[in-house]
Amino acid sequence: MIKITDLEKYYRTEEVETIALNKLSMQVNTGEFVAIMGPSGCGKSTLLNILGMLDDPDGGSYVFNGVEVAHFNERKRADLRKHNIGFVFQSFNLIAELTVFENVELPLIYTGVPSSERVKRVEEVLDKMQIMHRRNHYPQQLSGGQQQRVAIARAVVNKPKLILADEPTGNLDSSNGNEVMELLTDLNEQGTTIIMVTHSEHDARYSHRIIRLLDGQTVVENIMI
Amino acid sequence: MIRNYVKTAWRNLWKNKVFSLINILGLSLGMAACLLILQYVNFELSYDHFNQNADNLYRVVNDRYQNGKLIQHGTITYSGVGKAMKDDYPEVVNNARVLQFGETTVTFKDKKIPKGIAFCVDNSLLSMFTFPVVAGDRSTPLKEVNTAVFTETEARRIFGIQGDNFESCVGQMVKMGTDTFPTKITAVIKDIPKNSIFQFDMLISYQTLIHSYGYTAADYDFKDSDFWHYIQLKPGADYKAFNAKMQAFSQRHFQGNKVSGSVEKFYLQPLLRIHLYSDTEYENIETASSNVVWGLLIIALFIIGIAWVNYINLATARASERAMEVGVRKVTGATKGQLIRQFLTESFIINLMALTIAVVLAVLFQPVFNTLVNQQLTLDNLFQKGLGGYLISAGLIIVVVTGIFISGFYPAFVLSSFKPILVLKGKYSSSKKGIILRKGLVIGQFAITIVLIIGSLIVYRQIKFMSSQKLGVNLDQVVVINGPQFTTPDTADTRAKAFLAEVKQISTVKNAATSFWVPGSETGRNFDIQDPHNPSTHYTMRFNGVSTEYIPTYGMTLVAGRNFSPTDYVKRYQDLHSTILNVSATKLLGFSSPQAALGQIMTKSNSKWTIIGVVADSHQKSLRYAIEPTFFRPQLSIGSQISVKMNTTNPTQTIASIKAVYEKFYPGNIFDFAFLDQRYNEQYKNDALFGEAFGIFGGFAIFIASLGLLGLSLFSTLQRTKEIGVRKVLGASVSNIVLLLSKDFIKLVIVAIVLATPIAWYILHHWLQDFAYHITISWWIFVLAGVVSIIIALTTISFQAIKAATVNPVKSLRSE
Prior knowledge:
The structure holds 2 protein chains of 2 kinds. Chain A is an alpha/beta fold. Helix content of chain A is 34%, strand content 28%. Chain A is built from 7 helices and 10 strands. In chain A, the strands form 2 sheets. Chain A has a 6-stranded mixed β-sheet with strand order 6-7-8-3-9-10, with helices on both faces. In chain A, strand 9 and strand 10 form a beta hairpin. The longest helix of chain A is centred in the C-terminal third of the chain and has 16 residues, at 174-189. Chain B is built from 26 helices and 22 strands. Chain B starts with a helix and ends with a helix. Chain A binds chain B through residues 45, 49, 52, 54-55, 74-75, 78-79, 81-83, 87, 89, 91, 93-98, 102, 106-107, 109-111, 154, 158, and chain B through 1, 4, 7-8, 11-12, 15, 324-325, 327-336, 338, 419-421, 424-426.
């Protein structure tokens, strides 16, 4: 599904140039659950952003579903992104002014799904995430675990092929964290490819494969049994 | 999609109540001020557009030069000019002569009804201007001698017509003023629109003037310049090209200064410019100041601009708060275009809410505003046919739409270009560009308000200067009464003397006099005064015909010689021979001192006058105009104005006593009086309006700008809560903190002062040049305006700063 070759990314300030990704190459197949680990500043998030087409690389190739996307402009990337990729963040990033229902509905609005269809699909996914009873609440009225379930619901409502999760349990206690990891595992078992950045060895164990980064390069890959 | 935008916008507004209130309050006040001002501007610009021929109608302006100097810049000219133009130039298709009659009493079946305004005009005026006939002769109602046309209202007033049966008064006979002959009503016309320079109740046929009054000079003459002319050019004719031919015209009919004693320069003034762009003397129509109109329009745009700037500043300052939302929307698939549309929708909603409130405010404040501008305006005026049609209304819509876009677009653009991943990680910090723009806009807002503060101070001081300046005539407790219309010329002389003597008998009356004109009105000019040392040179002077008591009644100072004595008055004008000059007149005639002029002969129009006295210069007109050389002659005339100087604590009672005497001497006349100081100060009506508008709308601008500053300081203190906490823990005092928070804003205000000062000086220096007598702009006005704006800014900021500085630091640090 994903094949990146010699991917490069630099950050420049006036005086210093920092290399975030240094000719990184890797591949993720459809249906895989991959964890990316590494110390702070190793380029994990940069990689995730490029994979999620939120940022563009400075060099190298990125083939998504057989299409070279490294040179795509913002509009094309946004288009590809909204139909194929769902995001889950550490800090949930729910919009405070929208209710649970409306937050989850948002991706459907942007992909132009008609209203009646939207209601059906949002209800379906809220039901699956066991958060239906909170549909008319605002994010700040929910617990952290509930908020992350809403965020996951939002990420999957469009039935994306790929979910990118950036430390999804980082702001949760262990029981809520486990619940989220179970949810991601379920999604993966139903066929969704998942790439997750994490600091937690415990969470990484839910994945099929761990890619360890250091200074923008792959240092080791562990295949989980 | 739209529903989602509206929903988020609405919830955002609701969540940030303070910022929303600041935005909506500022915008609605700004828009309300704009709506009110635009009504006025649109009304003033709509003058005469109702005339179907408006584009082809012109007024003749006549400048007169003597010895190379402009001595009269007037709209009055010679009766032959219009016809001569029509005869000489094929592009002139029509012309009309006009003479002002002023307030005229109409007598119908022995009932005298006063106060109708009359003009004496050629029949052609009715086909040139759009004054539709509703009853009677539709084509030539004013062709014959002794005919008149009434407006609907005047017809109702004189004939008591009910409903629309105006045909019933056509053919009726009335008497105008003191006429002994009857005048026939030939037609009734629609009431004159309010936005017409001509305002009248009746028109009398010009032929009446020539044939019934025997005023032959009114027909076709090149010596008496007492008439107004309107000209209609062929459609498409260029009046500038026509004006270029006027030198030859003047030479042909006036042969330099041979015919009239002065060199005549003629030009056409387009009808549509008359109302706002007339600085001419001897006006008989409605004029207003274009300075006031355009000045107010600019102020209106400034005020609304300041409100929009508030919106932009608050939106961009708070961008970081919206950043997360933008990030989320982007990762869930929003394109930049969708986000821009979302924020534009938000700005549209706010502007729409503000506009709704503004309309309500405008309706509520309409009466106050109408009093200020002395008009009967409504929101309908916004859609009146104005400058080239609906330009101002169209302009208003364009301005509002652009405003929504400008105020919405920048925030939309800034917000939508956030890198989602950065903001979602909380790494958003406001861009440098944004901060510079915000600072620039605040400086701009304050520069404008400072210009307005300086403007109102200087205009106020100039008006105060003019009304407190010694005029050389004392108008205090002087009542002016219109001279009697109904009395016979042969008795006028003796009766006036007896009347004045009896008025003076009233214990609370100090003195009483008659004169052709009273201070504050435009006196006549004589263009044929010989230089005593060089008889071939001619000069022009103002003149006034006065009774013996005029000089003492007005407290004028005799600097040489004596006042008129009763023996100076003789019945026949040809036998008059004594005159009193003002000091300027003695200088004009080349006398070395007032004393030197005494006993000398002044020759005017081939008659000889002995100078018996010299009075100090005094202001006949407002201080906008320079004092002109003037001579006084001893003359009693019917219709002279009566001035009564009172010394009373009960003016009502004194005026009642004067009225009793007036009615005894002049039975059948209407006693119509005014306090002269009030009437004199009406000359400053436009200037006062300018000053008040500057002050009031300047206040609006300051308030709205302060709202914006309040919002920004609120935001910056919120942002710096933690910093303040840390500083307090480290020992900063409350005043340290307040200073810290105010410093940045005060710097901006100081830059604004530096920018505003030269701009304000430039504008007001120019404005003052319109006044022959004006204040000098003192440096302290700028200092005062600067101090005032700093105080306003400081007060605004300190609300927030003090609150933030006194918060317990533990609280602000705990929120981590």
